[in-house]
Design brief:
- The protein is an all-alpha fold and 290 residues long.
- The chain is 70% helix and 1% strand.
- It has 13 helices and two strands, in the order H-H-H-H-H-H-H-H-H-H-H-H-E-E-H.
- A two-stranded antiparallel ribbon has the order 1-2.
- Helix 2 runs antiparallel to helix 13, helix 7 packs parallel to helix 13 and helix 8 crosses helix 9.
- The protein starts with 8 loop residues before the first helix and ends with a helix.
- The C terminus is likely disordered.
Length: 290
């Protein structure tokens, strides 16, 4: 008797499905879209490394000898390191405060039943959708009347309020996705509610914490309108205003501007590359769960 032998593993690996025209079209479209988004970033970094005479030319220059003169000029602006310090302080301070408050608020919304809970959720959503730029005049009047103009703590508080609604909304979804039975089991084993949250729920919130931290960092790091109106003193300004230092009476110094923009974008790019997998998953999961 003859038996039919199973196909060899190597033969199974070599068997591939033929590419469909729809799949090829989608891949080509994705590559084209990626090129459209990546090219401006490439042009920014390449312009930052070009000599001054090769930036504004009739024909684009793709092959050139890199130079760091533009970066030297950008970092040579007065108070540069003050701008860096101020940006780091207000951004990190706002993100940390938002995470601490949002953890408590999102836990209360997801786990506790209280009067006005739905109204609170609706208020958080409305605050997230509100354009904060329309509040600039009101913020200025409050800062002026309370003598807090050119104040980094006030700027940190404003950024904290700006990123808090999104942080609460996202973390609420993650907490709601954690089974209540895990928390109850920890309490049966002798944990208090706070200990159950710290030992059981908090470790499961890593993707949500990363995604909200990334969003908050980008929002506070890039914010321009508030600091422009509230902090006129050079020693109380942040890096977004540093980018305006390269406008002259004869136009923009594009080499220094591109170098400054590259330096300004590097922290965000590094953080996104480091957190991209968990951050993207965290944003989508926290938006639909609960």
């Amino acid at each position: 008797m003859s038996t039919t032998s199973a196909p060899e593993p190597a033969q199974q690996l070599r068997t591939r499905r033929p590419l469909r025209p729809g799949t090829v079209a989608k891949n080509l479209g994705a590559l084209l879209l990626a090129a459209v988004f990546v090219f401006p970033v490439y042009w920014m970094f390449s312009s930052a490394l070009k000599p001054a005479g090769q930036i504004l030319t009739k024909d684009p220059v793709f092959v050139f000898t890199p130079t760091l003169d533009n970066f030297t000029k950008a970092t040579g602006v007065a108070n540069f390191w003050t701008y860096v310090t101020n940006s780091v302080l207000v951004t990190v301070g706002a993100v940390v405060l938002a995470l601490l408050v949002a953890l408590a608020a999102s836990f209360a919304i997801a786990r506790m039943k209280f009067k006005g809970r739905k109204g609170l959720v609706l208020t958080v959503m409305m605050a997230q959708m509100a354009p904060w730029e329309v509040m600039v005049i009101a913020m200025y009047m409050i800062a002026r009347d309370s003598e807090m103009l050119n104040s980094l703590p006030l700027l940190t508080a404003i950024y904290f309020v700006m990123i808090l609604p999104f942080t609460i909304w996202t973390l609420r979804g993650f907490i709601a996705a954690v089974p209540v039975t895990l928390e109850e089991a920890a309490q049966i084993d002798g944990c208090t509610r706070g200990q159950a949250f710290r030992k059981v729920i908090f470790p499961l919130l890593a993707p949500g914490l990363m995604s909200t931290s990334l969003f908050g960092f980008i929002t506070a790091w890039n914010e321009f309108a508030m600091v422009l109106i509230l902090n006129k003193d050079k020693t109380a300004q942040t890096l977004p205003l540093w980018l305006t230092e390269f406008m002259t009476a004869f136009g923009n110094d594009w080499g220094a501007t591109m170098a400054a923009s590259s330096l300004f974008a590097v922290p965000v790019l590094l953080i996104f590359i480091f957190l991209q997998r968990k951050a993207v998953g965290g944003m989508t999961a926290g938006a639909v769960k609960g």
